[in-house]
Amino acid sequence: FDDKVQVFGDVKELKKENEALKKELTQYQNDLGKQEAELAELQTLRDLYDLDEMYPDYKKTAARIFSVNSSGWFNEFYINKGLNDDVYEGCNVICDEGLLGIVVESYDDYAKVRAIIDDRANVTAEIGSAGYLCNVEGSLQNMDNGYLLATDIDKNAIVTEGDKVITSSVSDRYLYGITIGYVTSVEQDPNNLTQTAR
Fold first, then answer.
1. What is the model's pLDDT at position 140?
2. 183-193 as b/e: b if 16+ CB within 10 A
3. Residue 102 CB: number of other CB atoms within 10 A?
4. What is the rounded distance in angstroms from the CA atom of residue 45 to the CA atom of residue 77?
5. Do 134 and 125 meet the contact criterion of CB atoms below 8 Å apart?
6. Is the four-CA dihedral 28, 33, 34, 36 of positive or negative sign?
7. Tens digit of pLDDT for each residue in 47-98?
8. For the chain, how far is it from start to end, CA to CA, in angstroms?
9. pTM of the predicted model as reported, rounded to 2 decimal places
């Protein structure tokens, strides 16, 4: 009987200790979740700072995407900034990879953006270190295959794999020098007057 009472007492103590440890574990998990969220926020702020440093001459404001069209593609989406934040129709939208799109509609506290992958998108661009003019055409089909086309490149232009494509200084819709992408391949067009790059 004494042995059983002793075991019962040990079990009672173990249960109490187990409850205390569970509470302590929950607290550690909460603290860890909070620290992970703070680290993610810090990384986001660092990325925004880096982006700000890449384009120092342009006025910028940070925004979040809050809605995407039902197709699942980001060819049109909504951001949580609008006229109240000086975000108006024609404003360029950038991300850490470069040009994302352009604002096509703006309201008091949100705006609609058309991405450069949209079939209706057209960006006057410069390609390579010599800045040859070209036209970057949006295409969901091509984007599905992982690229966009840079068309109407002069046949004598020297364009090679890895060349950077940026928004052109002659563009009337996009600010100059925003990265669009990098060349992965280039070929002569059948008309023998121009080239097309992916």
1. 83
2. beebeeeeeee
3. 19
4. 22
5. yes
6. positive
7. 878 878 888 888 889 899 998 875 655 688 999 999 999 999 999 999 888 8
8. 85
9. 0.72
